[in-house]
Each structure stands twice: as structure tokens, then as C-alpha cells.
Amino acid sequence: MAEASTAKLYTFGSYQLGVHSPGSDIDTLCVAPMHITRNSFFDTLLKKLSKTHGITEINPIQDAQVPIIKMKVDDIEIDLLYAKLPMKSIDEKADNLDDDEMLFEMNKECILSINGKRNTDKILSLIPSQEKFKKVLKLIKFWAKRRGIYGSIFGFLGGVSWTILVARICLF
User: Which of 32, 81, 90, 156 is placed for a possible disulfide with 113 were both Cys, Cβ 3.0 to 4.6 Å?
Assistant: First the structure.
């Protein structure tokens, strides 16, 4: 039963791309088998997290388009997303999140939750020179932040948008 209840964690976004900076959050995806519900994730896991030493500022946002638990682990901001996969247990097949067939068996929230990881993996697979890509993306993000024109919540391009633009340039 414990084997069937195992979940797996993946990082994605700027952390996986290797372009994170001090103060950046770490986007993390938790995938679990089909019998672990979103309610279990938010109820059971939340209780355990709140009792764990070093974890502070736990903020569950269940009603968001992409439900998330925001928290700090040893003063590092973590955004924890959840997706229930159409599997009886999480094994090596869970590493293949780019399998489009599994999307047909998932609800909207779970599809949106795994999209960040899928998109990051796809971008990395397409870029011929990842070192050049990382250097340019770090520079662009630094430039935009210094000029106060970084962040989709402020009406500017955010991390994903800048990443796609730099990836496109690096394909030439």
C-alpha cells in the first residue's frame, strides 16, 4: 500500500533551466497516483508540512486556476503544484510526462499543473546550445528586472515569456 501511495517531485521553470537567481522561488511539481485526491494533497500533506521544522509561511491556494501550496523551506520560497496521474503507482513511467495520451485521462487542473514541467522539458530538448541559452536568458532577466519591466503580474513579460523569446532566438 505504501508503494502505491508514493509521489514524485520534479523541479521546473527557472530552477530546472539553471537561470534562477537569489530570491527566486523554486517551482516544484508533485505527481501522485490516481487514488490520491487533490483534497488529500491539500489536507493531509498540509498538516504534515505545518508540523515540519524549517517550513514556514505555508499558504495553500486551492481555488486558483493552478492550485498550489506556497511555502518557505529554510527561507527558500517553494511553489508546490499537484497533479494526479492516471497510474496505479508512480514508477519510472512517471518520468514521461510528455506522453500526450495520458492527458486524455486527466482533469483540467492536473493538466495545467504538469504543463510547466512539460514546457521546460520541451524547451531544453529543442535548444542546440544550452549554455549559450542560459547565459542569454540570465542576462535578459537581469536586464528586465533592473529596468522594472519584468513580471506578468505587473503587465510585463514574465519568466515563461522571456524564456520562449530567448529560446526562439537561440534556434537560429
Answer: 81
